[in-house]
Amino acid sequence: MTAISPVMITPTGKYPDIPTDNAHTGPFLLPTELILDILDYVCPSITESEILQNHLFFPSERRARFKVLRALSQTCRVWRCRFLPLLWHRLEVCTISSGLPEWKYMEQIGPALLTKSNGLLESECLWPYVQIVTVTLVPLGAPVTLDAFARCLSVLPNLHTIEIVHAKRKRMGNFIRQAFEGRTYPTVRTLTIPHNASGILRSCLEVERISCTGIHYQTRLISAMIRDGCPRPRLTTMCEVAFSGRLCNKKKKNLGRIIPNLTSIEVGWEYIPGTLSEFKELSTVQFNVFLADLRGDKLEERLANALEQKSDICNALKAANGNQRKWLTVIYYGMESLNVKFEVEEVR
Questions:
Q1: What are the two backbone dihedrals, phi and then psi, of residue 345, each rounded to the nearest 5 degrees?
Q2: Which parts of the chain register pLDDT below 70?
Q3: Between β-strands 326-334 and 339-347, what pairing exists: parallel, antiparallel or unpaired?
Q4: Diameter of the chain by CA atoms?
Q5: How far apart are CA 98 and CA 121, in angstroms?
Q6: Neighbouring-strand partners of residue 135
Q7: Quick one: how far is CA 326 from the chain centroid?
Q8: pLDDT of 14
Q9: DSSP state of 272
Q10: Domain spans in the chain, listed from the N-terminal domain onward
């Protein structure tokens, strides 16, 4: 088989035109959108909802999409021009090979992230393609690996989403903070990170959406944002976050200054009444109430608290500026034999 030359970026920075030879015959007639729909059905990509479940890693079966796109990009020159950007649209280092014990995942993911980061740094023709980065961070070789990873992110001109599936162990917070110190990623608009990866927040001041993985440590992400004190005027959406009572009582006024344009937020059962009063542009709130394993008096107490919290959220929405329609969604998890119950209402 004739070797396929790498796709190069034109001097203007644009992708090269797809060759027209044989481009209108046989399988080349299939639109790229249709092929992607087929891929989504057969081998779907990792979703944000899966990442929010705070997995350590994903099984090797989730590499199927990457393997298919790589095979398509190596088929011929026409399909290489079509599928190489799709292959590198997402940089993914969060899966382990089948057949290995789970406890050995660090020995795979750490070196894989270092190899991919260094390889991408040396492949300038691929930089414009990468828009989403989905990784698991491990302490094995962290100082060297994270330095290469942080440098790699700096050269990606179209990067808009960083997803950290998991950052194993407490000490990862220090490693991440050191690696990202002084770096900025002005194109990043979406962050999905665990609490101990908060060191990356200062590098992404133009972020518009932040989600936190792991339901037990969501308050720490808010605390980290208040500690760094950097305003984020673009930030409009926060998902899976929580507010501790101590944080709200002492520093909630700073939240309005740091996140002045927040319009949508998702809060949990730890929500403290009065917190949302500082957000003057608020229009959409999702309130998650967890009732699983609660019985008798404890269940009644949780429902009573939820009613009080819901009333406070409604008042915050009513007091917010603007004439846009305002919505509150309450989701009861574990209600009625572990089913999920939704309540959606417009707040006037």
A1: -145, 150
A2: 1-28, 102, 214-219, 240-253, 322, 335-340
A3: antiparallel
A4: 73
A5: 28
A6: 93, 164
A7: 25
A8: 44
A9: P
A10: 26-214
